[in-house]
Amino acid sequence: MSDNQIDQYRREFLSKTTATAATGAIAPGVMLMSVGQAQARPLDEAVTSANRWGLLIDSNKCADGCSDCVKACESENAWGSGSSDESKSDAAQKAQWIRTVTLKNKLTDKEHQLPMMCQHCEQPPCVDVCPTGASFKRADGIVLVDKHICIGCRYCMMACPYKARSFIHEELNDQAPDVPRGKGTVESCTLCVHKIDRGDGSTACADACEHKAILFGDLNDPNSDISKEMKKHATTQIRADLNLNTGVRYRGI
């Protein structure tokens, strides 16, 4: 394919995306039902920047060996062990929306673990490199992938400093109704956007954490629990040196 053909291909995709945005519709494949923490938003009401949804993860509360957040995410979004299709895949090819990583203090040899997922950056590198506009950030800070226009180039996977994205290698049959997936496309944590949009007020990982290590909330609301906790305690961004202003913050690291 010539450079002119590639440029034309990209322009066609981007023009379609722009036209969709101009009519007030969100990207195809994303079902929007609400935005309020406890109240559903009408279908025809656009997402706004009044909210910025995020997570505060207290690694001091994470129990060694615990994987409840991972299991809850798999079950809610039908990936990994939550998908019978992926049971046929090689381990290296399975999706991984959230994973636990172990940190070790080199001076004391003390270890503790914490969950790692898409950090929902304010300036997401994955969006910057996407040639079709499939990777995008909503006005409320949630970073998503539009399955309809993702061409599986995997540029976003290479650009993500958190290794948060997965490529789907197999045919999928047992998908969750609210979570569109598809062979040949890229995916990652959606911050349980379907739950947020219907007004559930939390994510599957936060709901499942019996240690209360994960707190979901509106970073723009000074009266939200997450904002109050961030005012009381010092928090950290992973790879803060990249100046991405992540929507996921950590304590204890």
From the spread of the alpha carbons, the general shape counts as: globular
Q: From the helix content, strand content and strand pairing, which structural class follows?
A: alpha+beta
Radius of gyration, whole Å: 18 Å
Distance between the termini: 47 Å
Task: Please give a structural write-up.
- With 253 residues, the chain is α+β, with helices and mostly antiparallel strands.
- The protein has a single domain, classed as Alpha-Beta Plaits, CATH 3.30.70.
- Helices cover 23% and strands 15% of the residues.
- Strands 8-1-9 form a three-stranded mixed β-sheet.
- A hairpin with a 6-residue loop joins strand 2 and strand 3 (111-117).
Please outline what is shown here.
This protein has 253 residues and is an alpha+beta fold.
Top keywords for this entry?
253 residues; alpha+beta; Alpha-Beta Plaits; three-stranded mixed β-sheet; two-stranded antiparallel sheet; 9 strands; 15% strand; globular
